[in-house]
Amino acid sequence: MKAEINLINVEDGDAILLMLTDTNRKSLIIIDGGFKKYYPKLKRRLQEVLPKFNNTIDLLVCTHYDNDHIGGVENILDDYHASVKEIWIHKIDHSMKKTAAFFEEKLSFFQDKTAGISSPENIDNLKNIAAIERYQDLLRVVDKIKSYGLEDRITEAKHGDLFKKFPEFTVVGPSADFYNQNLAALKEEAILEDVKKDLESKIIDRNLLSEMIAEVLPQKVLNQNPCALLEKSSIRNGVSATNMVSIVTMLKIGTKKFLLTGDSGIESFEKHTEDWK
Asked: In sequence order, what are the residues at sequence separation of 6 or more whose Cβ sits closer than 8 angstroms to the Cβ of residue 39?
């Protein structure tokens, strides 16, 4: 088997094309779509490679509900829904219809809280409005899976699942138990707060941050064992449930293994390290 992996530059998120070929089989797999604003870059590459794969997207993997990963998926569905044969995505409820209803309820509640804000007077209001806009993108992705009649092509990918056409492409995580353990937190944060955290991180003064790293980090490293600086728990360090339940996949090519992690955290991997040793 031969594989070509294209990583499209979409800023912080992911938009990945896996092109797998063998003597009697070939498949195009898309993992996430990046921010919507970068979709033209992804589409240009798709237009180049799709004819080589009979204009078929055998698998579309949506690792988790963050705009920098799933935003461009809406465009993929608009342009290529007839070409998509299978979708790996999680459901917040047992159907996409109920998942959409859940998102709509949360969005309505949040919009009520920000009603009447026409010109943001502070950073919090700015984040609220921007978060609502991005949250609506997520809701449209779920709605389009329904409206294009693709729900019967969904697999709620969990640890141990594999891509039937190329079993060398497998799901490492999350396990069903790990996903269910995080489901309450996932519903509580309802993606929206995670979006706000992401926006908050982008408001940081980059110049100030660079100065702090240049002055503080070298001294910190010199004074400690570097291993002591490694994160021990993603949950304790604020990684959201949305990220923690990212669909993690692995591609095996001979003796080589490629791990594609979404935004998962340390706890997402702890029970499955044997899979890639």
From this structure: 33, 71, 72, 75, 76
